[in-house]
Design brief:
- It is a single chain.
- By secondary structure, this protein is an alpha/beta fold.
- It is about 40% helix and about 15% strand.
- It is built from five helices and four strands; from the N terminus they run βαβααβαβα.
- Strands 2-1-3-4 form a four-stranded parallel sheet.
- β1, α1 and β2 form a beta-alpha-beta unit.
- α1 runs parallel beside α2.
- The chain is globular, with a radius of gyration of 14 Å.
């Protein structure tokens, strides 16, 4: 099974939404891919309460995606996460490219960047549908791979 790794700052909101949504779509479309997610700077998530964002939980529920009661807490990215991923996607190029350059420069060229800002810049009602659109495009592209 191949792996896609989604990155955001705190592994609390955007990357977790992408992970759960991708895994639901991969199962639905019988893709031989699985998603995981990590945060590049968990220490910046000072307002993160609990294991996962309420916006993520709410939108996943609206989509009929169950995440269960035992949701894990955010995890920090480590070099091994990059090494085991077949695709790596950071959710916001402006925010995450400098973090990658500082913390994981050896992986800078292996990362695809999207442009989905955090909730302080873009409301969840705008950001999460954009992630949905990008995940659907990614799933279609992966279906077409040999």
């Amino acid at each position: 099974m191949k792996k896609v790794l989604f990155l955001c700052t705190g592994n609390y909101y955007r990357s977790r939404f992408a992970e759960h949504l991708f895994n639901a779509l991969a199962a639905k479309h019988q893709l031989d891919w699985q998603a995981d997610s990590r945060g590049l700077a968990l220490e910046l998530g000072v307002n993160n309460v609990g294991p996962i964002s309420k916006y993520t939980v709410r939108r996943l529920a609206e989509l009929g995606i169950e995440i269960g009661d035992r949701e894990r807490f955010p995890r920090s990215a480590e070099s091994a996460d990059f090494a085991t991923a077949d695709r790596i996607i950071a959710l916001d190029e402006t925010e995450h490219r400098p973090m990658i350059a500082q913390r994981f420069p050896q992986w800078a060229e292996a990362i695809a960047y999207w442009n989905v800002c955090d909730v302080d810049k873009t409301p969840a009602e705008t950001a999460l549908p954009e992630i949905e659109r990008r995940i659907e495009e990614l799933a279609i592209a992966l279906q077409q791979l040999p």
